[in-house]
Amino acid sequence: MNPPPPLTALADLPEQLGTAGWAVVDAASLSSLCGLDPAAMQAWLPVWQSLPPDPHLRDGGRYRRRRHGCFMVSAEGVHAAPHRAHWQPVAYNALHGGFERWFEALPAPLMQDPAWARLIQGLAGLATTLRGPATWYVEAHPFRISTEGEGAIGRPTPEGAHRDGVDLVAVILVGRNNVKGGETRVFDARGPQGVRFTLREPWSALLLDDERVIHETTPIQPLDPTQAAARDTLVLTFRRGGFQGPEGA
After folding, report:
1. Is this structure's pTM higher than 0.85?
2. Where are the domains of the chain?
3. Which CATH class is domain 10-243?
């Protein structure tokens, strides 16, 4: 079995992020950081049951489903931004960078849920601790990586080890069903140092200083080959200065 992640206590989170560039918090700590009732997050689970297929996979795969939403966090609070394309430069995503990727928007009930705003606000506070006060431009990506068919695999990060071109990345595990694999790997962007572990607890979170580390997740396969496997995550990115787009390339 792959090793579990080393957990960081909330009191040690700023130091861990500041020195190592990454940290993992358990579900209770994420709830506490964001002032959330765990039941509120459980109420979001139906979102992952109705994710549409990703229409942009350049490896020809059909293993990824997702939606996309954008928000801004300022002193006035959390506000939804107009729906826009997701864009990354080729320097950060050699496989899917350099062109606009339009995905279906997040469901309105999720975007209007006060608990959703508290999640974003709490993580924006962590970004502020890491970088200083700023207006934070946030992109939200609910993902389902699945396997279908004999010998099929699902690729959480088909682009390989990468950065996202933001300040803070939060990868929140929502659930694993019939999955083997899906190991998380985090490496220092300036050298060979790295760690590897497997997120297993629903609503635990990997937090990344995107300027300092690169990350990837290994492919998944089904434990029971007669049934499909699925790994659900929520990825939230926080960036100063605006959303990424070709106008700023």
Report:
1. yes
2. 10-243
3. mainly beta
